Amino acid sequence: MSSGHRTLTVFLTVITGLFLTIVGLYAHWPPWAWATAGAALLVFALLAGKLTAPRTDPLSRTYGPEPDLPVPPREHREQRVHDVALSSSVPDYDFLLSATVRWCPVEAHPDAPPISPGGLAVGAVLDWARHITVKLPPHRASFAQHQLEGALGTMRPDPTGRLLVMAENITLTLSEEDSRRLARLSTVRKDEALWEHERKWERSKRAYLGEDVLRNTGSAVVWWLAKNDDQIQKTVDDIGVLAQLTSAANNQNVPDEFAHMVPHPLPEPAPPPLGPPYSGNGFAHSEPPFGDSPSTNGAAPPPPDASDLFADMMHAMGFSPGDGEAAYIAEEHAANLDAFGRNDEARRIRERFNSPPPPPDEATEDPEEESQQE
After folding, report:
1. Does one domain contain both 172 and 257?
2. Where is this chain compositionally biased, Pro residues type (predicted)?
3. Is the pTM higher than 0.70?
4. HSE-CB of 100 using CA atoms within 13 angstroms
């Protein structure tokens, strides 16, 4: 018993004895009560000594049969992995995983083969992570990282059942080249979608204008009146413009009922050009039309006769002067004219297509002299 223990026991005994003495004097105990109180005080002193005595350390050096054994080193149960490629949902675009893998051994059968806990733990974590990342697109790297943190943040058995494995401090990224490519692809897809929407909008607008608004002049006037419902007179004044616009949109001419309303008059169609006139048997020459000589007094040339028009028709059909086919066709027409009593017209046609062309010096002779010579 140490000195401190004995001092505490004596202190408690004295305090208890004083308390009993005060109580006995106040209560006027009989002699036998004083004897009983003294015995109880003695028993209390013994119990206090035992209760306050310090307990003996069973592992104290005093009772150890052998000296202390050295404490074994603490087993290392974590491993860091850096930039491990994991497949994404897009081929050739891989995530890069970095994480701290932790494990805890599980009690195994005595006959179980030895294992490499670090290798088993890292392999299990990478396999679990790959099953998650292969379903996610590469541009969702941040979302995939949070999913991995939730899926790998709890200790669970590895496929061999020898370890409890988890991962923490997870980072999931893409390479810089892949990030730039994805950014460019995203921009192109957005521009393409915008262009497609604009094209559809433009096509819809063209269809609305061409098939509904500008279908005819009436629909255009109704559309313009709906746009300017408070300007009826202006709409009436613009009917000609709307008619011209509707006709241009449908590749048609302005209808006759709206032609007088068009502010800009349409040009008159030019008459089709006639071929060069024939002279004599049909040769084109530089003389005035239909072989007439210019008047010396400046008078207008006489109107063309049937032979002149027939010569123009033969030239338009592509017959050459002096061609036998041209002479045959001319003779057929002349015969038909004779049958209907048109002898003068038939004679002129025969003269043009059956007689040789007149000499140049005779072309200027007076027609009266020529008739007298005949």
Report:
1. no
2. 264-276
3. no
4. 6
